[in-house]
Amino acid sequence: MAATDSSTSAGSNALAVDVPNLNFAFDPAAPPTLIDCNLQLTRGSRCLLIGANGAGKSTLLRIMAGKRLASASSIRVFGRDVFRDAPRGVTYLGTEWAMNPVVRSDIVVSHFLDSVGGYRHKERRDRLLNILDVDLDWRMHAISDGERRRVQLCMGLMEPWDLLLLDEVTVDLDVQVRADLLDFLAEETIKRQATIIYATHIFDGLQGFPTHVVHMRLGTTVNPKPLDWPPNESNAHEYPSLAQREGGLIERELSPLLTVALAWLREDRVIRTKTEKETADSAAAKGDAQALSRLRKRGARVGEETTDSEAFFSKYDYGAGR
């Protein structure tokens, strides 16, 4: 839970986030997950992380939150090293929270929020209860995933924060709640100069939300710095042009933000497929059997036989509960 610090309020033009050339691997013996990632944001920014599944967005957010150690890197939030001098005022909200057995236990929402300090921030708590349409009498074990997500957001946002890291936590929300929440978050960045970094695959209703976008591909940030949003004369060349958009994207009348995201992801898949082929060809040319055994190809595998899965299927009652 966040707690604001006087040091995070001074200097509205100071960098809120400074990630220079970040490299990270879960296993030292494995290829890196993040490669030369760069991210610098001033206070009051609202930044979207855009990239395919596995591009490294969640890992980057967790490192900035201090939940993953990248000991060889110097990552600063409000001028403080996130590993050696952790700043206050940082809130991270991810999807894994809703799977925690504790938050699925038989506890009343009002008691749950009080247990994490709701009584200290009653005005903000009450506003969030209204925005998120949360019933204080709900019992955590008996509500839907979307309702449980609303409780998580109320819990995580009721204490004032200076940096908010969101990882796909609006995926379960209905359209109205999501729209009202985004309005609240934008207001926080304007009135309090708070900063938001938001990774999502849902771009409906986001056209006017971000001040910056960051494109991540195969574990790296594609551009040396976040791109201003919406595009302007100085950076329009860094966005996909109309000529690059394929597959009927224009005819489908997508929003400009969704059109850009889809164009980037289509480009990412082409580049990833080409990289995988080049890696496989290089390993084959060198006769590197170990490297070849580690390679994985996504999609259909031409020439491979399928197997009869009836024995596997019969062990499970997939129709239970229907």
TrEMBL record:
Q: Which GO terms describe its molecular function?
A: ATP binding; ATP hydrolysis activity
Superkingdom of origin: Eukaryota
Q: Which Pfam families match?
A: ABC_tran (PF00005)
Keyword Nucleotide-binding tagged: yes
**UniProt signal peptide:** none
**SUPFAM superfamilies the UniProt entry points to:** P-loop containing nucleoside triphosphate hydrolases
Q: Which intervals hold domain ABC transporter?
A: 17-243
Keyword line: ATP-binding, Nucleotide-binding
Xref: InterPro entries: AAA+_ATPase, ABC_transporter-like_ATP-bd, P-loop_NTPase
Q: ATP-binding: present as a keyword of the record?
A: yes
Recorded protein name is CCR4-NOT regulatory complex component
